[in-house]
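Quick question: what would this complex look like in 3D?
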Amino acid sequence: MSKDGSSSFLTTRLDAIVDWGRKNALWPLPFGTSCCGIEMMATFAADYDIGRFGAEALRFSPRQADLLIVAGIVNTKMAPVLKNIYDQMADPKWVISMGACASSGGIFNVYSVTQGIDTIIPVDVYVPGCPPAPEGVLHGLLRLQELIQKGETHHHRQERARRAAGKEA
Amino acid sequence: MRGTDIRTPVSTIYGDFTQKHAERWKLQVEALQKKFAGAIEEVRWPGTYPTEVPIIYVAKESIVDVLRELKEGADFQYDFLADITATDEEIEPRFEVVYNLSSFSSDSRIRVKARACDGEDVPTATSLWKGANWAEREVFDMFGVKFRGHPDLRRILMDERWQGYPLRKDYPLRGYQLFPDTQPIHTELLKD
Amino acid sequence: METQKPHSEFGLPASENYTITVDVPGHENDPDDLWKDSRVFVNIGPTHPAMHGALRMCARLNGETIEKSYCEFGYTHRAKEKLGENRTYHNFIVYTDRLNYCSALTNNVTYAMAVERLMGIQVPDRAVWIRMICTEMARVIDHLICVGVNALDLGAFSFFLYGFHQREEAYTLIEKICGARLTTSYTRIGGLMADAPAGWEKEVKDWVVRTRKTVQEMDKLLTNNRIWCDRTQGVGVFTKEQCMAYSYTGPNARAAGINRDLRRDDPTMFYKQVEFDVPVGKNGDVFDRYMVRMNEIYQSLNIIAQCADKMRPGAIWVEDKRVRIPEKDVVHNTMEGLIHHFKFFMQGFDVPAGEAYTAFEATNGELAFYIVSKGGPRAHRMRIRGPSVWHYQGLSEMTEGLKIADMVAALGSINIIAGELDR
């Protein structure tokens, strides 16, 4: 409704509205295992304040979160745990891989370290750095928001594939 | 071993540690040799071998007795177990289990080693220090040296289903093993 | 066990021996133990928010009381000891950062000291003073994180925010000397990566003043807080004898009354030339550990101020061709410099054969590198003795008979750092 009383419209797809809502209210599950976990804590603390971007509602239960931030090393002993947590999260869900260890194994190309969490779960945004500065995490979050709005995340691709399959059937 | 002399003494630039304790070590090692005549295989001294503290090689069967004497004997009082680890020497006897002890009363340190061949077991020191438990488990996990009488000798750093002993020299640096699920809870360990 | 009214009032058959007992879980010799066959096995971690990342505890609960438990770790094992045997001494510096990542500078310094000890190198005075400032700054940061997170676990959020703000300021100073915040890789064998910029001492001293003020405020906020005292005093007690049996060191041992600090008892660097106290607790509970850490922050700030005063301009590199990284203009303009540079980074420098156990009072306790060298550019054995392993080992015994919520307080107070624990 405009000020003069005449009605006004914003036409958009329902999907876009939903995505807009989702991107601005991400509830992260911090999966911090090592060094990056400390920088992730700094991102949530006062000086960087991730709440400015609508992602301050930390949820330690996978059932309540829709953004998994994997901060730090995931070794072979931890890999089943990570897979388990990811599977427990309800759709739609997104994953940020924070730091070199989570993204590619980093400097630890050794017997115990998985060479990137994307060998276990799908990842939407990789944040480089060892560890990334909190600015980097915020940048990664903004990038994820962009991707969600554009509909280019793993979740969206999966959804489109599901719909296409439904049409064919 | 390019151009290095094995007899170069390890410099103790920080605090003249070796000079400060030289007399004490001499007396202590003499006392040990008197008490455990057959068990002390070899002693390496800081002046002649590149180390900062004397290394006492003990036959592995009497390692617990020697450690007890070092811990509780009035002249020794190395009551603090700083570390238990091992090295892989690649030739038999392949493993050297290393005990780093420290004395709070005299600020002195000493190192005890026991040699073990591949497949042999070493008596456990958990009766002396409860803290030796995990250190010995780690040695078992990484080197495959078993400890006789250990209360709970399981793998500690690696998954329990892991094959091989990573810190052995013949173990490759890369190549990992994945498991479908995480380690189960051992309810038998939680019984009284 | 509370005895309630006889059952006759509730219309039940009256009997002298028949009373309802309200079961107190964990009560000894309880004949009518309602929970007798309802012990619960609970798995806590490795991703539980209270388990600091990657620790796991399996416990048998009676109600909310932990009757028996065992701990597991290894969920962040990164094979640093194996890497120590496969990387040159210079390349291994970056891996030391990732041990105790809350105080990476302390690990850098201890590692550099360990290798220098094997090689018989004495670094110049200015480098030593900067190293001392770095280690103490790392200690302040680590303690701030530890007490902050411990308080956060018990619900004191603003205390945590104060600490983290001051920590950010410290990271600004650390960024000025090495360009990194957390994983610094600042020391080199025989020197430092770069000299401190002009005026850095002054900024450090200003930071000391500001931090002292903030820590005093934090002190006021929490130390006499009734809820905090009730949650921490007498909780998670670990006595002197237990500390010795489990090889506790650092603030956790000092909280139990073990008067041992390697900075004072086995002084390396220039710790003989600075004045500081060693705070020692008495009870060995969560509160004492907190108090020891808070007091150590003040002591560290004093040390930093003294070091900043005593620092003089000068060289930061030892003039030893074996370890000295050639200057960039020499590398770019002379053939010899380029070859030297190439050989240094591709092949590494040889460390004479020998073995040494070099211990230093890191933030959490005795951090030691036991390096066995057989000559050549790589170590034969690189053992890292992290204090956290030994602290974590005592947790089962410490928390026996405690409530789950108190276990969280106890775990936070012993400051387990996963990187140092799993290596």
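Answer marked as accepted. The interface with chain B takes residues 76-77, 79-81, 84, 109-114 of chain A (CB under 8 Å).
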